[in-house]
């Protein structure tokens, strides 16, 4: 009876029976108390998980089906029978499809998708036969089920999850209903409905009301004694000693008694079958899931399909099988009967082999598009695995290995290769190539899932075995794989050490192919660190070997890598030439995967040059190929690239849509690395729109993933992004903290490119605080690194930043020199986007010097480029810059028209930050014309937006504007109140320049109220801050104000201060649009 007291554990990912339960409730009796309890839990807002627990055959599934069919509420419900060990991916995909959500194809990270789906509505999800997913220790045998249940318990929503199981999993949060047999009265009513005669009450009590046992006995009597099915005839069927056995003192416990009864009845039922029926019942038990008659014929040859189907239906009449009609007639076992049949059958080697032959005969040949296309190969794997023929099981899996990898079915690979590895480890078959290949494949699957530590563990096992048996080839491959895992984590130095060891072995054994691959890997590691010249040297060596041995595929990859190295240095034309050569080779050899990647690389180069439309065309071609060949990873990357192109054009909503699709795929295939990058990109899109809080949430999620998977490079980038968001909010100290952490990581992992970026960002934070000398120091360090690594793009950006710092110091000639150098580089490398920004910066410097016509010329050129490359964001800022220049010329109506166009674009693309700044500019233009009320209205709108998006810097400026607008009308007390608020914010965010201006303006307002002592103190505070910043011209203004205040004068209201302030504020607004 051991077979009945344990659950069937399916070792490989199995079959999911889903949709409607298709269970007949024709003879339903009782269970009113149990139904009432479940109804109470279903209506309880604090109950999310309900479990029906009981031994096999007690009616758990029937009770769940009754609830499914008749319970009120839950407009959408789903039934999933996992009795054959279905993987979480199959269940989640079908649930999401049924409930109208995007349909993922893989387990990893589907937990979150399913949780969100269930939270979004009032759904009922029933999972039948949960015990099939548990190992003997009650732990999960299939990935992600435990994660799902734990997450669902912590969630909130109106949906409910109900499970049936023979044994409880190790989980908290369930409300459990222990299900026993029917009450005597209910059991009697059931037997009566089934036309059974005799002492029904005594028999029901004897078997503890076990529903399946009652049904089996009834069907056995009805089949054998159709005219008079009486319980007294059980003796004639070999069950005369049933009472004696069930009341024996050695049979202890209700469950034990029911199990004994079940065995006796099944034995009696089995013995009454014909030989054909017996063989049929036993042979089809090797299958998983419902079977068609053709499958049954395959394991019982020599019989017609019509005959076999008839016998299957006879077994249904005896309750040994159930029948389903869903397009095709299918037959399946009750779980208890299945266990009995498998136990009874014993060794089924020959039958498993027939099943294998059957699946081979119907297996679909490539090309495949969905996992369902390779289901026969996975069934072949299962049957060989049951036969303990692990090499043949490996061969079946290896047939579809590339497809599973391409389609991102990494979690399935983890389960299947994991089973093989576990068995071979127990056997100790260390010299078996299939074992080592399975270790490598298992490591690669974990690597693709972003679970790098687990990948390293299996790569290390492969390495240990290779060294033990002296297999230098596998040793080199394992070292290379370890290098990949460390490289993905941003631990480049460790990666380089492994790659170098792999290279040494390849050279030692004369394997030119592996030598080239190791050189390519070394190039990648150096490329990621920003050491482009070293990377190029390794790529060139790899290219030389590929050409020497005639390996066109590796030749194309080496050319593509050379293109990347030149691309990162801003040498886009050279990069394009390499990418084009790589594309030509891919097309020549028919490698669609590499063709798609080469097209994506070409898109990358054009994107960096600001030629967004061309970039989009290449990205779209890359996307089309990825979808055609079913490469989900590349599909996600292409969508991400398209998002970047639209993001750079200021088309944020379209960008967000592409990023979201990319994120969905990353979660689908369990690629945690790409998931983190997609989240970061979503953060960028929201950041550019001024929706900083949403951006921060995405950046934080990206950071969490980077830390979880140990990716130091991505961790540093996420910290940098958080710094940018807080910088935009005017929270400069927090920004500096994040930038510093990012800088520390870049230095730790030797990433010179990211080190330069972090230094540049630190400069930005100090610039916004008015600490110009510190900003210059950071910008100079960033420039030095860019020149050292040959990154022309970053060199140009660092020069532009230095120009901004000197511009802020009023050293305009030096600023112009830096801007010109930045412009020259942009033109040299063909970066139209940076060219436009450099022209705008030059316009700013000339504007500050009062050379308005020259400023207008530069701004117009910047606008022309923005329009040419389709960059809506920069178009809007260029229009605003032109507005500033015309405003400075006193041509207010032209200025207002340009500001309005800029505002329209900002509103169109959802850029709240720029929208607020345009409103401020409009306010200042009306202020210049003396239209104070209109000015105040615009300033107030600007303030509202700044508060909405949490931008403390712009809040302070808007309050200052309001203060001076009221001051210009002689309402000095109101002016002082706004200026004081502006000063408080400037102090809070550490913006010394704004503090100084606020003090000076307060001095003006106080002076106009004849509060001379207070005014004098305000001017002195302003002077002290301007001195600290090295702004000598501003110090002189303060000295003049102090001297003026100290002289005897007629008490006359002066508006001199207002115009001084307005010119100063105007400079700030101008500088804003150069960002």
UniProtKB/TrEMBL annotation:
TPR repeats lie at residues 436-469, 476-509, 516-549, 556-589, 596-629, 636-669, 676-709, 716-749, 756-789, 796-829, 836-869, 876-909, 916-949, 956-989. Gene3D superfamilies: P-loop containing nucleotide triphosphate hydrolases, Tetratricopeptide repeat domain. Pfam families: NB-ARC (PF00931), TPR_1 (PF00515), TPR_12 (PF13424). Keywords: TPR repeat. The keyword Hydrolase does not apply. One of its GO terms (molecular function) is ADP binding. It comes from the Bacteria. SMART domains: SEL1, TPR. Residues 32-168 form the NB-ARC domain. PANTHER family: RAPSYN-RELATED, TETRATRICOPEPTIDE REPEAT PROTEIN 28. This is Tetratricopeptide.
């Amino acid at each position: 009876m051991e077979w009945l007291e344990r659950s069937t554990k399916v070792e490989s990912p199995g079959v999911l029976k889903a949709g409607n339960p298709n269970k007949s409730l024709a003879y339903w009796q009782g269970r009113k108390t149990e139904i009432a309890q479940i109804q109470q839990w279903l209506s309880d807002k604090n109950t999310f998980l309900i479990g029906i627990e009981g031994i096999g055959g007690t009616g758990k599934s029937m009770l769940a089906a009754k609830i499914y069919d008749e319970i009120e509420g839950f407009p959408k419900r789903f039934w999933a029978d996992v009795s054959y060990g279905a993987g979480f991916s199959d269940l989640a995909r079908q649930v999401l499809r049924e409930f109208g959500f995007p349909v993922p194809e893989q387990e990893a990270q589907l937990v979150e998708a399913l949780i969100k789906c269930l939270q979004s509505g009032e759904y009922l999800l029933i999972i039948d036969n949960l015990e099939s997913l548990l190992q003997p220790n009650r732990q999960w045998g299939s990935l992600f089920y435990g994660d799902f249940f734990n997450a669902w318990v912590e969630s909130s929503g109106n949906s409910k999850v109900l499970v049936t199981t023979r044994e409880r999993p190790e989980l908290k949060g369930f409300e459990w209903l222990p299900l026993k047999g029917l009450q005597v009265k209910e059991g009697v009513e059931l037997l009566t409905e089934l036309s059974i005669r005799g002492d029904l009450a005594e028999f029901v009590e004897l078997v503890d009301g076990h529903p399946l046992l009652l049904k089996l006995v009834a069907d056995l009597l009805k089949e054998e004694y159709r005219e008079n099915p009486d319980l007294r005839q059980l003796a004639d069927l070999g069950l005369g000693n049933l009472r004696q056995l069930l009341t024996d003192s050695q049979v202890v416990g209700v469950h034990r008694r029911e199990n004994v009864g079940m065995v006796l009845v099944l034995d009696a039922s089995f013995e009454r079958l014909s030989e054909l029926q017996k063989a049929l019942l036993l042979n089809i038990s090797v299958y998983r899931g419902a079977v068609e008659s053709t499958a049954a014929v395959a394991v019982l040859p020599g019989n017609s399909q019509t005959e076999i189907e008839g016998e299957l239906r006879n077994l249904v009449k005896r309750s040994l099988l159930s029948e389903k009609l869903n397009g095709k007639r299918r037959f399946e076992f009750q779980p208890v009967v299945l266990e009995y049949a498998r136990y009874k059958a014993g060794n089924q080697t020959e039958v498993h082999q027939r099943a294998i032959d059957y699946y081979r005969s119907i297996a679909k040949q490539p090309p495949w598009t969905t996992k369902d296309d390779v289901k026969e190969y996975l069934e072949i794997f299962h049957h060989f695995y049951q036969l303990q023929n692990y090499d043949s099981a490996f061969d079946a899996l290896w047939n579809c290995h590339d497809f599973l990898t391409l389609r991102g079915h990494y979690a399935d690979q983890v389960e299947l290769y994991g089973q093989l590895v576990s068995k071979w480890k127990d056997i100790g078959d260390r010299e078996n190539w299939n074992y080592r290949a399975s270790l490598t494949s298992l490591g690669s699957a974990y690597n693709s899932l972003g679970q790098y530590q687990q990948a390293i563990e299996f790569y290390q096992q492969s390495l240990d075995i290779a060294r033990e048996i002296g297999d230098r080839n596998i040793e080199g491959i394992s070292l290379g794989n370890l290098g990949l895992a460390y490289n993905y984590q941003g631990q480049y130095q460790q990666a380089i050490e492994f790659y170098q060891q792999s290279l040494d072995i390849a050279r030692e054994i004369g394997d030119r192919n592996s030598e080239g691959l190791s050189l390519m890997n070394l190039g990648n590691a150096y490329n990621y660190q920003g050491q482009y010249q070293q990377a190029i040297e390794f790529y060139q060596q790899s290219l030389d070997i590929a050409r020497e041995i005639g390996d066109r595929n590796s030749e194309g990859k080496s050319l593509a890598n050379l293109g990347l190295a030149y691309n990162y240095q801003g040498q886009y034309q050279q990069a394009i030439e390499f990418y084009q050569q790589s594309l030509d080779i891919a097309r020549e050899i028919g490698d669609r995967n590499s063709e798609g990647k080469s097209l994506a690389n070409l898109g990358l180069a054009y994107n960096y040059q600001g030629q967004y439309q061309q970039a989009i065309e290449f990205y779209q071609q890359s996307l089309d190929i990825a979808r055609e060949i079913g490469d989900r990873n590349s599909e996600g990357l292409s969508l991400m690239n398209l998002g970047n192109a639209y993001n750079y054009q200021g088309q944020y909503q379209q960008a967000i849509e592409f990023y979201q699709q990319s994120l969905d795929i990353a979660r689908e295939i369990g690629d945690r690395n790409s998931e983190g990058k997609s989240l970061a990109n979503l953060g960028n899109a929201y950041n550019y729109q001024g929706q900083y809080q949403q951006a921060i949430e995405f950046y934080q999620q990206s950071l969490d993933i980077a830390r979880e998977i140990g990716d130091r490079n991505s961790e540093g980038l996420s910290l940098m992004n958080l710094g940018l968001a807080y910088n935009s909010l005017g929270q400069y100290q927090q920004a500096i903290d994040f930038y510093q952490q990012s800088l520390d990581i870049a230095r730790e992992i030797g990433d010179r490119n990211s080190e330069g970026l972090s230094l540049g960002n630190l400069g930005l934070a100090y610039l916004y605080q008015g600490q110009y000398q510190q900003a210059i120091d950071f910008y100079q360090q960033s420039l030095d690194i860019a020149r050292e690594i040959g990154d022309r793009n970053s060199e140009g950006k660092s020069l532009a930043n230095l120009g901004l710092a000197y511009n802020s110091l009023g050293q305009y000639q030096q600023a112009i020199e830096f801007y010109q150098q930045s412009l020259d580089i942009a033109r040299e490398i063909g970066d139209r986007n940076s060219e436009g920004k450099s022209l705008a910066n030059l316009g700013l410097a000339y504007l500050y010097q009062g050379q308005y016509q020259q400023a207008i010329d530069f701004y117009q050129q910047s606008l022309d480029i923005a329009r040419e490359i389709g960059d809506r964001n920069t178009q809007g800022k260029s229009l605003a810059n032109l507005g500033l220049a015309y405003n400075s010329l006193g041509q207010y109506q032209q200025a207002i028209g340009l500001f309005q166009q800029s505002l329209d674009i900002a509103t169109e693309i959802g850029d709240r930050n720029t929208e607020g700044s345009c409103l401020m500019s409009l306010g200042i233009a009306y202020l210049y014309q003396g239209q104070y009320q209109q000015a105040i209205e615009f300033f107030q709108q600007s303030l509202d937006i700044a508060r909405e998006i949490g931008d403390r810097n712009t809040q302070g400026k808007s309050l200052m504007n309001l203060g001076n607008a009221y001051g210009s009308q002689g309402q000095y007390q109101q002016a002082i109140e706004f200026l004081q608020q502006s000063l408080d914010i400037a102090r809070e965010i550490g913006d010394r320049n704004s503090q100084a201006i606020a003090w000076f303006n307060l001095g003006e307002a106080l002076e106009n109220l004849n509060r001379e002592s207070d005014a004098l103190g305000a001017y002195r505070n302003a002077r002290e801050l301007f001195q600290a910043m090295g702004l000598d011209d501003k110090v002189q203004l303060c000295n003049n104000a102090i001297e003026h205040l100290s002289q005897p004068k007629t008490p006359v209201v002066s508006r001199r201060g207002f115009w001084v302030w307005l010119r100063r504020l105007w400079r700030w607004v101008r500088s804003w649009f150069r960002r």
